[in-house]
Structures are given as structure tokens and as C-alpha cells.
Amino acid sequence: MACLIMYRSGLNRNTIIYTALLCFVCITTFGLFLPTDPFVYNKSLGFTGAGGALGLLIGAFISLFIHRDHEKEMFAAWVICAPLMYGLSKIACHVTGCCSGIEYRGFANISYHGEDGRFPVQLSESVIFVIIFIVGLIYFIKTGKSLVTSRIVVALSVVAKFGMDYLRESHYTSSGFISNNQVLAIVCGIFAITLTELTDRVLFKPGKVKKN
């Protein structure tokens, strides 16, 4: 999807290919080596959606300085697709049952390993983040405002991730006011906004007319 968005935005074919390769490497690297819970030491190796999203943003940001070709559209393409990647990754969480929802006996409740009915938090996240992707894509196509779209997508993603944690069982086993997942959502959001603002400052000189 990111490649299609870049192609539609007029990026050179080589830029699309090399940017995609770099982003895929960064997604895999950060997704595999960012701990499932960054605040708890854990030797186990597994793929995390948050790590993949961070890798995607880092790969896209590095690409800005390698390929000076429709930079803001290229960066926005990857930001827009980050919720899609995360949403699809939560389907795997649903299948394996790695993060249970709160107790819930209503419509569409699910059970893992003989547990009582649980809220389908993983599937709910999948639906919500795919919707965020669709909203970002439509806004980008309609307005062409790349960096504004990036900010909107990041803000919606952080709010969704933070809010959905209240429907996880793990949230209520946390000793703090907010859970580690919510802290990670805020940190990732700040990081993403920082990269977006740096993109705005680095790529466009003061006094240059900007549409976004």
C-alpha cells in the first residue's frame, strides 16, 4: 500500500523500491528485537507490532535524506500505512491468544485456554486501526496535505492504542496509574510526532511556501 501511494504521488520507481527495502529491513529488525514489554527484561524473541511501527518510521525518516524525491509524500505514505500494518498484526494476536481482553459475556466474546468469556480486544484493535488507515488514506487523497495527514494518523493511533488498553486484562494487573503499554503508546507517539516535525523543519527552509 505504501508503494502504491508513493507511485500515485509521482515518486521515481527506484526511490520506491529502495525505500521499501530499507523500511522492510527496519520493520523486521525493530519488530524482532524490541522486547514485548520494554519495561521488563525478557530474553524471549518475538515480533512486536510497536517495534515494527517504530522501525517503519525510522526507515522512512532515513530515506528522506537518501532520496530527495517527493519527500513529504514518501514519509506520509509510510505513516498512513503504519496503522494498517499494526491492525493486521493484531490478527495474529487473536489467533494465538497472547493478550486477553477483560472478562466479557456479551456479543462476540471469545475464550482462550479454558478461560471465561473475554472481550475480543485484538480483533477490535484490528478493525479500529484499519479504519484509521482508511481515514488517513482518504484525507491524503482528498487534500494532498502530507504532513497534516501524518499528524492526524499518529494522533488517532496513539489515542486508539491508549484507550484500547483499558479493555485488556493486563491493564488491571499493572501497579501504576497507567500501564506499560500506555506509556509505550505515548513514547511512540512523541517519537512519531518528533520525526514528523523534523521532516517539516529539515526538508523545508524558512520562508519557503508550504501547502502543508
Structure explained in plain terms:
There is one protein chain. This protein is an all-alpha fold and 212 residues long. It is built from seven helices and no strands. It is elongated, with a radius of gyration of 18 Å. Mean pLDDT is 82; it is low at 206-210.
Question: Can you lay out the helices and strands and say which pair or pack?
Answer:
Elements: H1 2-8, H2 13-33, H3 49-66, H4 71-96, H5 121-143, H6 146-164, H7 180-203
Helix pairs in contact: 1-2, 1-4, 2-3, 3-4, 3-7, 4-5, 4-6, 5-6, 6-7
The total beta strand count reads 0
> How large, in whole angstroms, is the Cα Rg?
18 Å
Oligomeric grouping of the chains: single chain
Report how far the terminal alpha carbons are from each other: 22 Å
Main beta sheet, described? none
Helix-strand string: HHHHHHH
| Mean pLDDT level | 82
**What's the helical proportion of residues?**
55-70%
Quick take:
It is built from seven helices and no strands. By secondary structure, it is an all-alpha fold.
List keywords for this structure.
single chain, 65% helix, disordered C terminus, 212 residues, mainly alpha, 7 helices
